Amino acid sequence: MMIAAFARESRLSVDAVRLYVRQGLLHPEVGTKGGSRPYQIFSALDLEKARIIRAGQALGLSLKEIGAFINKRAFDGKEGDVVIAFLAEQRDRLAGRISELEKLVSYVDAKIAWLRNPGVGPSPPYPH
Amino acid sequence: MMIAAFARESRLSVDAVRLYVRQGLLHPEVGTKGGSRPYQIFSALDLEKARIIRAGQALGLSLKEIGAFINKRAFDGKEGDVVIAFLAEQRDRLAGRISELEKLVSYVDAKIAWLRNPGVGPSPPYPH
DNA sequence: ATTGACTGTGGACCATGGACCACAGTTATA
DNA sequence: TATAACTGTGGTCCATGGTCCACAGTCAAT
Asked: Could you identify the residue whose CA is nearest to the C1' atom of nucleotide C7?
């Protein structure tokens, strides 16, 4: 599919897609159409990568980091060990973030409880 | 405490602290020292806010959003209902993020398992 | 053949979240 | 009193992650 369709399906802007291509996060094929400036052809695999990109962003990774992740290419199953180690590391980072967020949720919950039950005890401290 | 001590204790840079003050995330008192450009005096409450700021950033909130959060001021316990609603909303956003991240962890785990057990079945799809 | 939609390239521009710098006033210490 | 260290202000600069625009080539439908 060409860039407009790809952007629509991945819910990215055409400009963003082009940026990702320039940054090496996506590697569309060079199609036959377009003459001197051949059109880029995106695949279903690129759609999956787009999902990864958005997930990574929600996670606070930079495009560079996401590119590193994507280009380790757990997608084709080659060079297993390196990829596995890399993924395991990312997994642990995610798990760490989750526990941070859970602390924050507990904090907000405590704050809410404290507000609902006026003036009982001190304002709950944010977990150090 | 003055800005350098505050920066040290909150593990922020002096520049970052000044930025947060300009953006309205921190509201140090105007001290008596400093003459025509009075020095800012930071409190223990500001230290707590600094922790909130860093948590919010790790979470991907913008300074503006963090400022809105901080300035709803669940900290002093005034205007309960509005604050509670606001906090509850933030709490839900956090919970949503957590579940996103959990999906991502599952995905990575599945990917790892798939890589370890070579070629068994298709590469796990990223959860739509 | 013309028109309109799509494409790539290149560049300008933007907001965010800072770092860094010069300058001048202030303070503390010696 | 001189000096170093700290302070605020105002400004520039930077990377990141885009948007937007003009331009020209290409394609598809009429």
From this structure: A39
